[in-house]
Amino acid sequence: MTEDGNSQSDRPMLIRFPPGSDLRQRLADSAHANRRTLTAEVISLLEMGLSGVEARLHAQEKAINTAHDLGSDLNDMVWDLFGRVERLESHCGIVDGDKVVPTKPKGKRR
Predict the structure, then answer these.
(1) Disordered: where is this region (predicted)?
(2) What is the dihedral of CA 47, 53, 58, 64, to 10 degrees?
(3) pLDDT, tens digit, for every residue of 22-55?
(4) What is the three-class DSSP state of 98?
(5) How far apart are the C-alpha atoms of 107 and 91, rounded to whole Å?
């Protein structure tokens, strides 16, 4: 509420169009084509525009969350791969990247 008891929505809004802009005429043409007042046309266009912005923000948030999930999955896969490489190196007798002579396998070879 303002000091005089009126809410912001009760007060008219003045819109100034840039000099030389045809935006006012384009809005008037659009309002006439849609059988609306100029105010109703502006409100309709603002609502459509804001809905589009909200939808794009929602889609971007979803894409960010998907990317985060993929990054987490990739991180888990990399750590799993490191563990497998360490086990393979250990099995082959490789320590710190230096090959160690492996012991002979137990059992007979054919």
Answers:
(1) 1-20
(2) -170
(3) 999 999 999 999 999 999 999 999 888 888 888 8
(4) strand
(5) 16
